[in-house]
């Protein structure tokens, strides 16, 4: 648990971003303003047009806690550790943390952490989204969640089908089933259509990795390479070059390179 990260390892493009506390100069037209949103606490509200792929916020944690802390450490010890970590921070940062929203009614710091450090995964059904949002203490009123029961049911059906396609591709990649080129192409076309309908483009980076591995399994390496490259591009765009899971993309590339080397040795590639 630390007060601040070592700025020597922060990439310059993030360190110097106008919203960063490490930046020497701020920007005159910030993309957002913090406002009280009725029924939802504080939120970031856009106050100008935001370009696609524009970085609007860079920030650094003042307190780090291992997620396993809530599962393997008893409540009394957990409370002691969290309080000790909080006391090590400057008073201003302690106040900032204690001013954050609460929702569970439990021990103060743990309540704040549980309320503010979770996310809602893309692709969930309506009921699953509603359940996840209970941690934030409000109901979502976005266009999809506020749509009719019939529209939500259609959306849930699309999202369930996306998961089915993902598992079909993964089963083929792992050898549990044998999909032909034609079937892989059909599944890929269907998932792209469903992703567009549901506006879940960021999930393509996950689905394309399954497509790539399915093609690798049947030695269609040119097609596999195409989807590996698409996956890498999407990962950098949506997750960022510094994302913790970028190693997974490197592993995907490594698998492709190894298969291409073997195919060349076996005389199946020029």
From TrEMBL:
Please list where the region (Disordered) is annotated: 1-27
Q: Which InterPro entries match?
A: SET_domain_protein (IPR053185)
Q: What's the domain of life for this entry?
A: Eukaryota
Q: Which PANTHER family match?
A: SET DOMAIN-CONTAINING PROTEIN, SET DOMAIN-CONTAINING PROTEIN 5
Could you tell me what this protein is called? Uncharacterized protein
Give the source species.
Daldinia eschscholtzii
């Amino acid at each position: 648990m630390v007060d601040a990260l070592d700025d020597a390892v922060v990439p310059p493009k993030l360190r110097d971003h106008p919203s960063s506390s490490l930046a020497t100069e701020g920007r005159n037209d910030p993309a957002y303003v913090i406002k009280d949103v009725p029924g939802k606490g504080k939120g970031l509200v856009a106050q100008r047009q935001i370009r696609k792929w524009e970085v609007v916020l860079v920030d650094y944690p003042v307190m780090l806690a291992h997620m396993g802390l809530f599962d393997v450490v008893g409540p009394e010890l957990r409370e002691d550790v969290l309080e000790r970590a909080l006391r090590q921070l400057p008073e201003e940062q302690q106040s900032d943390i204690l001013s954050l929203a609460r929702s569970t009614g439990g021990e103060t710091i743990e309540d704040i952490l549980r309320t503010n450090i979770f996310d809602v995964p893309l692709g969930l059904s309506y009921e699953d989204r509603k359940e996840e949002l209970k941690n934030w203490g409000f109901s979502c009123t976005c266009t999809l969640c506020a749509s009719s029961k019939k529209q939500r049911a259609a959306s849930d059906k699309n999202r369930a089908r996306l998961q089915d396609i993902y598992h079909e591709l993964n089963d083929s990649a792992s050898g549990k089933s044998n999909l032909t080129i034609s079937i892989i192409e059909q599944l890929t076309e269907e998932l792209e259509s469903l992703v567009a309908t549901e506006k879940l483009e960021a999930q393509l980076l996950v689905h394309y990795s399954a497509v790539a591995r399915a093609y690798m399994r049947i030695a269609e390496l040119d097609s596999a390479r195409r989807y590996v490259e698409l996956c890498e591009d999407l990962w950098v765009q949506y997750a960022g070059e510094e994302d913790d899971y970028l190693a997974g993309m490197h592993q995907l590339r490594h698998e492709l390179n190894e298969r291409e080397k073997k195919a060349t040795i076996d005389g199946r590639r020029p």
